[in-house]
Amino acid sequence: MADLQEPLVRGKRKKSLVDYLVQFRWIFVIFFVLPVSSLIYLNIYIGDMWSAIKSEKKRQKEHEENVQKVVKRLKQRNPKKDGLVCTARKPWIAVGMRNVDYKRARHFEVDLSAFRNILEIDADRMVAKVEPLVNMGQISRATCPMNLSLAVVAELDDLTVGGLINGYGIEGSSHIYGLFSDTVVALEIVLADGRVVRATKDNEHSDLFYGVPWSQGTLGFLVSAEIKLIPVKEYMRLTYTPVKGSLKDIAQGYADSFAPRDGDPSKVPDFIEGMVYTQTEGVMMTGVYASKEEAKKKGNTINSVGWWFKPWFYQHAQTALDKGEFVEYIPTRQYYHRHTRCLYWEGKLILPFGDQFWFRYLFGWLMPPKVSLLKATQGEAIRNYYHDNHVIQDMLVPLYKVGEALEFVHREMEVYPLWLCPHRLYKLPVKTMVYPEPGFELHQRQGDTSYAQMFTDVGVYYTPAFIFRGEEFNGVEAVRRLEQWLIENHSYQPQYAVTELNEKDFWRMFDASHYELCRQKYGAVGTFMSVYYKSKKGRKTEKEVQEAEAAMLEPAYAEEA
Fold first, then answer.
1. Cα–Cα dist 4/15, whole Å
2. Would you place residue 186 in the very low, low, confident or very high pLDDT band (cuts 50, 70, 90)?
3. Among 112-126, 139-153, 441-455, 530-544, whose mean pLDDT is lowest?
4. Model-level pTM?
5. What angle do CA 174, 500, 471 make, to 5 degrees?
6. Which runs of consecutive H residues, i.e. helices, occur in 346-401?
7. For position 395, what pLDDT does the model report?
8. Where does the sequence pass through the membrane (predicted)?
9. 3: left (phi over 0), alpha (psi -120 to 50) or beta
10. How far apart are CA 198 and CA 220, in angstroms?
11. What is d(CA 470, CA 548) in angstroms, rounded to the nearest whole number?
């Protein structure tokens, strides 16, 4: 599209009262959000510890009882007068920034709040069986002392297993293991009619197994999952490598850091992520698991980045631009959650002085503020302000198009830093909602294999430079242009983010065929809302609710881009 290539002429932006409310919101965060967040974290920790001291048999018994409560609740629903089924979780509790507007319409709630236990860690099978509200901090706390870990551990502590399976989850090991949902061994699902089924990739419910990822819980209620474990060591040997040049030079340096052109597997790191700080500068970080004995050898640097007083991780990594490449050892669990304390770099907007030495030492132990609490207390005006003047989006693009994606973001949004994290997108037995480019294996591009195409998450999280310069910025139009770019380049947008897609374009981005077959086969139509309905921006009208409840399966939009 030619208009995407032309730089926009931007006028001066007029400030409103909401600008000042946002600018000084840190006062409310300091005196209310942080103290209350710390109490919430303490309460969650105590709950996790109480769960951990229960016997495995008792946890399993409680799980079975809670599953039966869900079954009973579903059978109480009267389709003629009750709304579509969804969880009883409050709209603001979700970590994502998308407005959970579907819960503002008539709906039938099912309480899943009890499903937050680790049911089993089986070191022989190398599988962890967990409930959907188990979060990343909870499970890494249990597995790391055993020198075990999930194959993919999303960076933020609060991200839950259910959200990462039903939606989208990634980490610096995804270039080896794929997305979080690719590491799942089995799913326990409560269907619309109350049946409880176990779905694996090779049993009679394999279609459901492949249909659940990206479905946003619209095929049934996930009540437990068995997830792959891998052996790990006590430390991560992390190498920080600066890359300078054009955005396409940075993209190539990023690809070379984990996908050697000669295909030598010994050169592939255990972990990789990149951060692009400006139009001409980035830092690539490659990690390899290391033993405690190696880390403590004379001359090696150990950096415990998890301590509250430590510099924020993205700022620490940025020092490589001045001092050049360097290596250090980070305790493995602290490395996994390196972005939690500063919420990547969003913490700088929430608390402008939060990265300062004095604040980190005195109050850093209170960080981070609970994202759900920030959302619950922001009000409609501030919420709309962030949607119009702030960007939180992920672009999942083929590796060979990362340079073009970076140029697009710079031109349309000018947001820095940017996060880069690769992941395999597997060629599966069925065509799921997200899938590799047809015929990708014929091109033998860098990072690709015969069974998976290498993609990259380009994370765009921050206020555009246009806003800082006092220039006009239309957040709605910027997101629309981003979404069209993604559609035209066989790329994807995770559904946690704010979307402007209409239904036709939504199904141009995602493939509906297998998802709709599962909806029909497992009775989800007219009981659970569709994934587009759930993702759609804006409040649902009564007419939309009624149409969704009475919906019969129709061919979803599937036009070629």
1. 27
2. very high
3. 530-544
4. 0.92
5. 95
6. 347-350, 357-363, 371-376, 379-389
7. 96
8. 24-46
9. alpha
10. 12
11. 43
Are the beta carbons of 119 and 129 closer than 8 angstroms?
yes
Separation between Cα atoms, residue 164 and residue 178, nearest integer Å: 12
CA distance 31 to 38: 12
Residue 181 CA to residue 129 CA, distance in Å, equals 14
Give 50 or 382, the one with higher predicted confidence: 50
Helix, strand, coil share of the chain (percent; to 5) = 40, 20, 40
What are 556's two structure tokens?
Answer: 């979803």
Cα–Cα distances (Å) from 7 to 31, 409, 421, 538, in that order, read 42, 12, 28, 30
129, 393, 477, 530 from 483: Cα distances, Å? 36, 10, 10, 20
Strand 326-331 relative to strand 235-244, pairing: antiparallel
Q: How many residues does the chain have?
A: 561
The secondary element (H helix, E strand) that includes residue 222 is: strand 221-231
Dihedral pair phi/psi, residue 290, rounded to 5°: -140, 150
At which residue do the structure tokens 């991560």 appear?
236
HSE value, Cβ hemisphere, 13 Å, CA-based, for 561: 19
Question: For residues 355 and 172, is the Cβ–Cβ distance under 8 A?
Answer: no
293 Cα distance to chain centroid: 34
Q: Which contiguous run of DSSP H or E holds residue 12?
A: none
The verdict on whether omega for the bond into residue 417 sits within 30 degrees of 0, i.e. cis, is yes
As a three-state string, the secondary structure of 451-491 is: CEEEEEEEEEEECCHHHHCCECCCHHHHHHHHHHHHHHCCC
